Amino acid sequence: MSRLQGKVVLVTGAARGQGRAHAVAFAREGADVVAVDIDSDTGGIGSVPYPTARAADLAETAAQVEALDRRIVARTADVRDGAALEAAVAEGLETFGRLDALVANAGVFSQAPFWEMGEQQFRDVLEVNLLGVWRSMKAVAPHMIEQRRGSMVLISSVNGVRGNAGAAHYAASKHGVLGLMRSAALELGPHGVRVNAICPGLVDTPMTNWPGVYDQMAGRPGGTRADFESSALHYGVLGGQGALAPEAVADAAVWLAADGASGVTGQAIPVDAGHLALPGYNPAPVQPAADRP
Prior knowledge:
It comes from Geodermatophilus telluris. By secondary structure, the chain is α/β, with parallel strands linked by helices.
């Protein structure tokens, strides 16, 4: 039986990657979908070094949901714009009459040593990855409180529990998501609303498929997709698994939203092929200046 038959989910960042996987997975389990994402053709995020989603990507997500015989409201909305999110939620409620789950997935990534980042670069990541999650939760919370049920699934990262050299702003934003999740679980629990987070490891999405990440995975400039695939095999502990498919994260989100997780709230669930079980990162040793050749 479908675990989410008759339910309605809001997915942010739904146009591609993990967001599309969430929308399709929920639809496959019987849910109708409210899907939102940015349209880079009308306004992107200047400091993000890879192409962000376009309206055509969101239309493809809608087509895949409809192919599963589920209904979808797909609207352009930037999670930096609370009014746009509230309008999408209102349209979803008008169309479907209810809202049972949120997958706060929208996120961006960029790289630089923290002391070289401009303030706008730091703010862009926080605005999407942390404040965007808060705005999404804020848009749906009154309706879930009124119906005295609901499940919020926030997408954090393994970088929510450990640092990321070269992306301190990203790690800070994902740490913040976990603090927000734990606090919201306490506040919403008495209203019957559950709040949890997923901490994905390395996932194969547009966010990880650009030269900066290839260089990081290769450990040198000039990294390639082949370097990414080879290095990804060392990221987790499961033999033969490299970067995870987005569907692996979506499967966890479905479980957290369904009745099978009715007793689960305030938890951060790693979906990382065992990455967090590995020993910590050790940088190359640095010789004292006096000992260098």
